[in-house]
Amino acid sequence: MYIPKLNSNKKRPLGIPEHEDKIVQRSITKILNTIYENDFLDCSFGFRPNRNCHDALKILNHYIEKRSVNYVVDVDIKGFFDNVDHTWMMEFLKLRISDPNLLRIIGRFLKGGYMEEGKKHKTDYGTPQGGVISPVLANVYLHYVLDLWFEKRVRKQCKGQAYIVRYADDCVPRKQGKCA
Q1: Minimal CA–CA distance to 66: which of 167, 156, 170, 174?
Q2: SS3 for 30?
Q3: Which of 8, 28, 64, 140 shows the greatest Cβ crowding within 10 Å of its Cβ?
Q4: Torsion sign across C-alpha atoms 43, 90, 129, 136
C-alpha cells in the first residue's frame, strides 16, 4: 500500500509483513539492537532504545546555542529506504555477525519482494518501510556510510569543530570553521 509523503504530492510504499514475519523480525531486531547499540555513535538518535527525536533536537539546540556556529546543513537522504544497497548491507552485517543462518534470514527479509495488485515484484535494493526490522537495518547502514564517514573523514578535514546529529535518514551536520 502507498501512504502520502509529508510535504509532498508523492506517496511512499508501505510494506505490511505477515504476522509470522513480524514475530521473527521483532526477535531479530532485538538481537541486532543488542549487537549494535554499543557500536552506534552518540550522534545517532532515530529508532534506538531510550533515544527519540526530542533528544536529537535537544543536542542540536545545545550545539547551536552554546557553541560557535558557522554552518548548519539540513540533510534528508532522498528515497533512502527505497535505495539501500543489499550487497553493502549484508557486508556491513558480516562485520559483526558470523552466524550464516541469521544473515540468511535477514537477506530473505531484504529480498522478500512485495505484492501489488496481485502481482509479486522482486526487490534487489531497499528495505520495506513498515517492516519491524527496517529501522535497525537503516541504522546499521547509516552507521557505516554516514556516521563513521563523518567522524573519520569529514571531521578530520575541518578546521575547528564539526558535529552531526542524525535521526533516521535525516541529519544536520554543523560546522565551526572551514572544511577543506
Answers
A1: 174
A2: helix
A3: 140
A4: negative
